[in-house]
Amino acid sequence: MLETIKEFASEFFVTGDPLILGAQVSIGLAMVAIVFILTFFKKWRWLWTEWLTTVDHKKIGIMYIICAILMLFRGGVDALLMRVQLAAPELEFLNAEHYNAIFTTHGVIMILFMAMPLMFGLFNIIVPLQLGARDVAFPFLNSFSFWMFFAGAMLFNVSFVIGGSPDAGWLSYPPLSEISGSPGVGQDFYIWGIQISGMGSLATGINFVVTILKMRAPGMKLMKMPMFSWSTLASSITIMFAFPILTVTLFLLFLDRYLGAHFFTVDGGGNPMMYLNLIWMWGHPEVYIVVLPAFGIFSEVVAAFSKKRIFGYKSMVFALMSISFFSFFTWAHHFFTMGSGANVNAFFAVTTMIIAIPTGVKVFNWLFTMYRGKLSFPTPMMWTVAFIPCFVIGGMTGVLLSVAPADFQFHNSYFLIAHFHQVLIGGVVFGYFAGLYYWWPKMFGFKLHEGLGKWAFWLWNIGFYVCFMPQYALGLMGMTRRFNEYNFDMGWQPLNVVSTVGGFIMGLAFLFQVWQIAHSIRFLKKDTSGDNWGQGRTLEWSIPSPAPFYNFARIPHVVDQDDWWEKKERHARGEADPAEVIAADTAPLEPIHMPKNSGIPIIMSGFWFVAGFGFVWDWKWMIILGLVGVVVTMLARSFNYDDDYYVSVEEIERIEAAALKGAK
Ligand code: HEM
Ligand SMILES: [Cu+2]
C-alpha cells in the first residue's frame, strides 16, 4: 500500500531538481500568503462579488491584464534560464530534457498566455468605451471567456509541478508529441490547457465582432470608427476563422494519443506533415491576431501626440483588412524545406511578401501623421516611435526569410529566432506597452510615473538590441535553434554572451516597470478628469476616469471621425454643436439596463479544469465529474431568468455628480 502511494506520488509530483523545488516552495508560500491576506483583511466577499463574478468589461479587462503581466514574468524567467544555459559552451546548467521543456513553455506562455490576454484586456477595457457602448454584446459570455482562459492557463501551468511540462516545442510537432515521442502527461497538459483557453478565445473573437458591428453609438458609421476598434475587428475576425482550425488540430492529436488513432503517425498510415499544415494554418494568422491590435494602438497614440488626424484613414483600414486576409495564405512559409516543390514554395513566398506592402503603407502613414504635427513625447509616444525602426528591421528580415531558396539556409536557425522576437517584442510587446501606458489613467484614474517609465523604456530597448542583433549573426554562423549545448570550437560563445547580457537588461527593465507601478500607486495623484492626456480624440476620453460601471450616462451621438476632439475644437472656436449632439447631451437621464453579476462562468470553467485534469491523467471518474458539472452549470444558466436590473436615475445622477467633483 505504502509502496503504491509512493510510486504514484513520484509520478504525480515533479521532484528532484533544485530549480523546481524552489518554484514549488515559492508557489506554496505565495498561496498561503494570499489566503492569509484575504482572510486577515476580510476580503473574500469583496473579491467574489466585485471581481470574480463580475460581468463588467472593464473589470474583466483588468483581470486579463494582471494575468498577462504575471505570465510575462513566468515566460521571462524561462527566457533568462535559457539564455544562461546558452551563454557558455558545454555548460551543465539545464540538461537537454529540461531545456526542451523550458523553450516549449516559454513559447506557449508568451504567445497564448501573455500576448493574447494582454490583447483581450485592452479590447475589453477600451473598445466599448471607444464605441460609445455600455458593454460588450454578450457580457456573460465575456466573463465565461475570461475564466476559460484562466482555467486553461492554470491547467498548462500546473504541469510545471505536477506530472511534468510538455517538451515538444510550442507547436508540438508529431512524432515528438505522439505517445511514442512523449509518453508522459506533459503533452496532455499542453493539449487540454490550450484547448480550454482556446474556447474562451474563440468566444471573445465572436463577442467583439458582434459588439463592433452592433453596438456603436448612433452616428458612428464604420468609416468613422477609431483605429483601435478597427484593429480589434480585424483581429477578432481572424480569430473566428483561425481558432476552429486549432481546436480541430489539437483534437486530432488528442485522438492519436488517447485512442491510438493515426492521423499523424506514419506507421499507421498518417502523415505528420498534415499536422504541420494544419497547425500553421492557425499559427500564422495567430501572429497577425496579436500584432494587428498593436497597429491600432500605434495609430491612436500617434494621432493623439501629433495633435493630428491619422494620415490615410481609409488606407489604414484597408491595410488592416488585407493583412488579416492574406495571413491565411502564407502558412507554408514555415516549411519551405518540406519538399513540396518549386511552384508551391513560390506561391507561399509571394503571398508572404505581399503582406509587406500594406504593412509598409501603415508605417508611412504613421510617419506622415507625425510630419508637421505638434509632437510631444510622453511614454506611450516613446514606445510608438521606438517601435517603428524595430518593426521595420524585423519586417525586412521577414522578407529575407520568405525568399524560399534562401530559407533553406535560414530555416530553424538563430536568424529566425532573432526575426520573430523582433516582430513579437518590437511589435506586439512594445505596442501593448504603449497601449497600457496610454490607457492606464483611463483604467485606474492615475498616471504612471513618467521618469521610471522612461528608465524602463530605455532599458527594454537597449536590452532588446543587445540581445537579438547578435542572434542574426549567430544564425548565419550556423547556430540552430532548440539546442541546449554547443562546442567550444564553434566560435559562438562571444556573441552568445552578449545576447545573454541583453536578456538580463530586459529583465531589469521589467523590474523597473514593477517598481514604476508600485511607486505610482504609493504616491498616487488622482486624475479623474477623463481626458487625462489633454489630447484625447476618441469617445473613451469624454467620460470620467475610471469610467462608471455603466460607461455613458447618456449615449453620445457621433458626427465626426475623432468625435471628442472635434467637439473640443468646436467649443474652443465658440461654435455650437450640431443639433443631434445637443439633443443627445441634454436628453433627460433614463434608467440604465445592466446585466447582473454571475458566479456561473467561474464555476463552469472550474468544471472544465476538472475535466481537463481528468483527461490528462485518464481518470474516467474525474472526466465525468467535470463534464457533468459543465452541463449542470449550463442548465443553471439557461433557467436563470433573473439576470438583469436597472440603474435608477437618482443613482446615475449621484455617480455623475461625484465624478464631476473628482474632476475638479
Ligand atoms: C523578453 C525577452 C525574451 C528572451 C530573452 C527570449 C529568449 C528566447 C530563447 C532563448 C528561446 C529559445 C531559442 C531556442 O533555443 O530554440 C526563445 C524561443 C521562443 N520565444 Fe522567446 N524570448 C523573449 C521574449 C519572447 C516573447 C515576448 C515572445 C512572444 C510574444 C516569445 C516567443 C518565443 C517563441 C514562440 C519561441 C519558440 C519556442 C519553440 O522553439 O518552441 N519570446 N525565446
Ligand atoms: Cu508565418
Distance between the termini: 71 Å
User: How do the strands line up in the largest sheet?
Assistant: 1-2
Helicity range: 55-70%
Arithmetic mean of pLDDT? 94
Bound molecules: protoporphyrin IX containing FE, copper (II) ion
Oligomeric state: single chain
Q: What low-confidence regions span 5 or more consecutive residues with pLDDT below 50?
A: none
Count the DSSP helices: 22
The SS-based structural class is mainly alpha
SSE inventory with pairings:
Elements: H1 2-12, H2 18-40, H3 44-52, H4 57-87, H5 96-131, H6 139-158, H7 186-214, H8 227-259, H9 272-306, H10 313-326, H11 342-354, H12 356-370, H13 379-401, H14 404-410, H15 414-444, H16 450-476, H17 493-522, H18 563-572, H19 579-586, E1 592-595, H20 600-617, H21 620-638, E2 644-647, H22 649-663
Antiparallel strand pairs: 1-2
Helix pairs in contact: 4-5, 4-6, 4-17, 5-7, 5-9, 5-15, 6-7, 6-20, 7-8, 7-20, 8-9, 8-10, 9-12, 9-15, 10-12, 13-15, 13-16, 15-16, 16-17, 20-21
Protoporphyrin IX containing FE is lined by residues 76, 79, 82-83, 103-104, 106-107, 110-111, 115, 169-170, 417, 421, 424-425, 428-429, 467, 481-482, 503, 506.
Task: Please explain how this structure is put together.
The structure is a single chain. Helix 8 packs antiparallel against helix 9 (272-306) and helix 16 (450-476) runs antiparallel to helix 17 (493-522). The chain has helices at residues 2-12, 18-40, 44-52, 57-87, 96-131, 139-158, 186-214, 227-259, 272-306, 313-326, 342-354, 356-370, 379-401, 404-410, 414-444, 450-476, 493-522, 563-572, 579-586, 600-617, 620-638, 649-663, and strands at 592-595, 644-647. The longest helix is centred in the first third of the chain and has 36 residues, at 96-131. The radius of gyration is 25 Å and the shape is globular. 47% of the residues are buried. By secondary structure, it is mostly helical. One of its GO terms (molecular function) is metal ion binding. Belongs to the heme-copper respiratory oxidase family. It holds the Pfam family COX1.
